[in-house]
Amino acid sequence: MTFNFRRFSTVLKREFTRYWNIKRQTLLTPLLNTYLYIGIFGAALGSRVGDLEGFSYIVFILPGLVMMALAMGAFENNSSSLFQMRFMRAIDDQLASPLSSLELLAAYTLGGLIRGSIVAGITLVTASFLIDLPLADPVLFFGGLLSVGLFFALLGVLAGVLADQFDQISLYTSFILQPLIFLGGVFYSVSLLPEVFQTISHFNPLFYMINLVRHGMLGASDVDPWLSLGLVLLGCVVMFLVNYRIFQTGYRLRS
Amino acid sequence: MDALEIKKLRKTYRSQKGQKETVALRGIDLNIKQGDFYGLLGPNGAGKSTTIHCMSGLTIPTKGTIKVFGDDAVADPTVARQHVGLSPQEVMSLDWFLSVEETLDYHGGYYGMPKKLRKKRIEELLDAFSLQDKRKQNPRGLSGGMRRRLVIARALMHDPQMLVLDEPTAGVDVELRLELWHYMKKVNKEGKTILLTTHYIEEAEQLCNQIALINHGKIVETGTVAELKKKFKKKTLEDVYLSVVGREELQRTAEADEEGQETP
After folding, report:
1. Closest partner CB to B110 (pick from A88, A94, A255)
2. How many domains does chain B have?
């Protein structure tokens, strides 16, 4: 397992160059989406919803929205970047070079994580000017966000390698990720649901992620945050090992 | 030490959705000496690109060994890949998010070249391939010929000991073809080993000191142009090629001789 920092940082820089060149699409669009959610659900509808778990509705949903921006940014970056590279065969220049599997995987993963973090960071900073945001447990909040972003960055790499067509990536996002995020409790507390739906929610991995980040910010959670953090980190390890194996064997990358 | 040593190389592509397995390479043995300008000739689907892809790491061989300047390209590819510069057949495979200059710079970075060295090398290559005024341009805006220059310049960026050119003059005009020939000869004279695949037989005849003829995934014949002509009792390399691929009826020299016409 070799690791050369210069080779790794070149791939990372290439990723950054890619999304910076198309920043309207990669950075401004997700920011706009997040602000629309904050505006509509938080400010417009939120005043009628009232407080949830002792917080105004806009404050209650904000950790989930920040996490969603981070997760979707990291996933979309890596899935579309890797798919495009495979589709155009531009990835051949990287695959024919001495770049190791670890260098490639680490660079793509970090590239997506940085893009997601930029969107989430701007959302958080601008929101903090408008709303009085609590920060109950900074370690759990930032650690939780980072681990969730890492998981989705790794998931994006997997999707980018497995997808046969560009439509497939949109399908993963629209039919799997977004429903799981919304049903995981971004806009509500799962404790408000009937018991059967509460039980079902516990099988949704996004439920743990949202609650982890929410606990970090608000100190309130439907589930033990350390259990959530453990599960997210376990997910990251599994996803890393799967992706590493794929890069090592060249599955769907090398013929 | 040989620049390239391939032994019993086999490649079988696994079946996909009801299709049969495809055997692309059936036990290839090939030795290329350091400094050779080596031509690999064969019809479409003969296994030329698969051989090249196996040695450059884009295809995983099913069996066999590949050594590039003594380093194992299958078991420990990281070192072996450092020796090879690949110019692929497909010029559309350039990274469309990077400019001409960035294409070269990032390629150098993938090979671990320090920034200072990359800067120097970029200037040399932009000059050599007349790409200076296109340096900030995106490959999408380049003509086919310019993209071809860029692909070859990129292959040379990390100063490899061996240059692999997969049909480098396909679809380019005569001027550029001659320009590329000139440059390839120069690079070879400077000591780089070159492996060239081409469909232009006269190109191989002009440039290569050694030829291998490949058909149905096997190396059928190897030798110098003179040796091959002598062995097959043919006047041109094209006729040798047609004999090897079993299309003697297409030979132009024999036909022209019989009819008392000049060879076209």
Report:
1. A94
2. 2
Quote the pLDDT of residue A34.
82
Query: Which is more confidently placed, A157 or B76?
Result: A157
Q: Which of B54, B97, B104, B113 is best to mutate for the A interface (most A CBs within 10 A)?
A: B97
Quote the tokens at residue B148: 């071809």
Residue B182 belongs to a domain:
no
Residue B1's CATH number = 3.40.50.300
Q: Is residue B178 part of a domain?
A: no
Same domain, B126 and B168: no
Residue B58: which domain range?
1-83+162-172+189-264
ipTM, 2 dp: 0.89
| Interface touch B78/A98, C-beta < 8 Å | yes
B70 touches chain A (CB under 8 A): no
pTM: predicted TM-score of the whole model, two decimal places: 0.90
Cβ-based contacts of A164 with chain B (< 8 Å): none
| Residues in A touching B154 (Cβ below 8 Å) | 93
- Tens digit of pLDDT for each residue in B137-180? 999 999 888 999 999 999 999 999 999 999 998 878 888 888 88
Question: For chain B, what percent of residues have pLDDT higher than 70?
Answer: 92
B77 shares a domain with B35 = yes
Tell me, yes or no, whether B179 lies in a domain. no
